[in-house]
């Protein structure tokens, strides 16, 4: 290996590039060996799979780490609480829930590989990862505001206390 190859080897590489390099290395030495990239990626995805439980019950999926949920709205049609206008398959709804969990737990987004996994889940929903982050942020803002906002009766009561005496 020359100095240029050593420097290039230290640069970040995608999983696909790394597997391709392994394949080339083994082909030079073993001629007949081929690394199954798809099987390797599947094994890697399984190794980094979300550890949290998403509970699909009676037409609803909930999470043990996020308040978001998915609801069945037809025989094979689901919506996500943070993506209510889009009808999804059950599998897409599950991917959306996994994506929300990944983005809700900072421990699950510490490496480039995990961000790539989140990006793939977003793509399965027809969205970019950036769009998902914006949608989830808006949803968090909405739910926080509605939870912290006093009821109309409490607001009216507070306003009555501000009225000057009429006597």
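Sequence proposed for the structure above (167 residues):
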């Amino acid at each position: 290996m020359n100095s240029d190859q050593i420097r290039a080897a230290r640069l970040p590489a995608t999983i696909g590039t790394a597997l391709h390099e392994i394949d080339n290395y083994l082909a030079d030495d073993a001629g007949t060996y081929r690394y199954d990239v798809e099987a390797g990626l599947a094994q890697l995805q399984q190794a980094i799979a979300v550890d949290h439980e998403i509970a699909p019950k009676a037409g609803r999926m909930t999470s043990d780490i996020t308040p978001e949920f998915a609801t069945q709205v037809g025989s094979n049609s689901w919506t996500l609480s943070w993506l209510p206008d889009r009808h999804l398959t059950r599998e897409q709804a599950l991917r959306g829930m996994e994506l929300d969990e990944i983005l809700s737990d900072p421990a699950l987004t510490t490496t480039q590989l995990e961000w790539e996994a989140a990006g793939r889940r977003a793509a399965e929903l027809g969205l970019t990862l950036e769009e998902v982050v914006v949608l989830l942020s808006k949803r968090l803002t909405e739910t926080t505001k509605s939870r912290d906002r006093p009821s109309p009766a409490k607001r009216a009561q507070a306003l009555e206390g501000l009225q000057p005496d009429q006597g």
